[in-house]
Design a protein that fits this description.
The chain has about 300 residues and is an alpha/beta fold.
Length: about 300
């Protein structure tokens, strides 16, 4: 009997940068929904046609704090609804059975957990997002969680929806299996399990870091997986305002990436996909490799 596995989509923001006529800025993927919304639909469709069984809403930068800082909080509901409509339209256009994942990202800045508000404020802000998305999405991914505080707050808010919740940690780009906050992955997983979290992912980290993290999770989680990024380093982003300063690796094409993801699947991962700089070609090849290795692509587990 073949093993069942969920295939996520890949990164959205970097694909939009490649397609758009506009210059990147801190809320760039948000502005695309105002200025070039068809591009978002096009990227969703490319992942669906590549074999993804779950696509994630394009709301990573559409958080209350980020919008308020840029004078756009009054468009919060509009942008959330727009992202939902674009995802639904892409699925309708492709005519395939694909699930929609709601997105609970870092509220202020990726990879810098110390910039997050207090725990209670984080929960309140995440609840604003959940209320916007819960009627439409099939599940929530709390993604690029770089600290235990962020993860607990996002999961606490997502659980009020009664939808399935996946918690995705971002690891330091080494082999220490630590969150970007320095907290050990193993103890972080165990702390989340104490509040009932069951599904865990590793994302937006080097695939080599996720390789090591998967080894930790395989013995401590029932459902786990990973979706890595393809950046050479995230360090330049710490002194810049947008991801245009980051470079893509030259050694992580579709074949090379699939080797990592297939390794995760063989080590028990039930959910794989891609993050920043992992595009439709990567997902298409990964789908092919998984099927060739007797994995059954599904949209739900159990």
């Amino acid at each position: 009997m073949s093993e069942k596995i969920i295939l996520l989509d890949g990164g959205m923001g970097q694909e939009l940068i490649k397609l758009s006529k506009s210059d990147p800025h801190p809320l760039w993927s948000t502005f695309v929904m105002l200025e070039e919304p068809n591009l978002v639909r096009k990227v969703h469709e490319s992942y669906i046609q590549s074999g993804a069984s779950v696509i994630t809403l394009n709301t990573y930068s559409t958080t209350p704090d980020r919008l308020e800082e840029n004078g756009l909080y009054d468009k919060f509901s509009f942008l959330q609804t727009k992202a939902i409509d674009l995802a639904k339209s892409a699925i309708d256009n492709c005519g395939k059975d694909v699930l929609i994942a709601g997105c609970l990202p870092p509220l202020v800045w990726s990879y810098v957990p110390e910039k997050a508000p207090s725990f209670d404020k984080c929960v309140d802000l995440y609840l604003e997002i959940v209320r916007q998305q819960e009627k439409t999405v099939d599940l929530f991914i709390c993604e690029t969680m770089s600290s235990l505080k962020e993860a607990k707050a996002a999961v606490t808010a997502a659980n009020t929806s009664k939808k399935d919740v996946w918690c995705a940690f971002s690891l330091e780009d080494n082999e220490k299996a630590e969150l970007r906050s320095g907290e050990p992955l193993l103890s972080s997983v165990k702390e989340m399990q104490k509040i009932g979290q069951k599904k865990f992912l590793l994302n937006c980290s080097f695939p080599e870091a996720i390789d090591k993290g998967i080894e930790v999770m395989r013995n401590n989680c029932d459902h786990f997986g990973g979706y890595a990024n393809g950046f050479t380093s995230i360090e330049p982003l710490k002194n810049a305002s947008n991801v245009s300063v980051l470079e893509a690796r030259k050694d992580l094409g579709p074949k090379e990436y699939a080797k990592h993801a297939l390794g995760w699947a063989r080590n028990g991962a039930s959910i794989v996909g891609g993050c920043c700089e992992i595009g439709p070609d990567h997902i298409r090849h990964l789908h092919k490799v998984l099927v060739e290795n007797d994995f059954q692509i599904v949209s739900k587990l159990g």
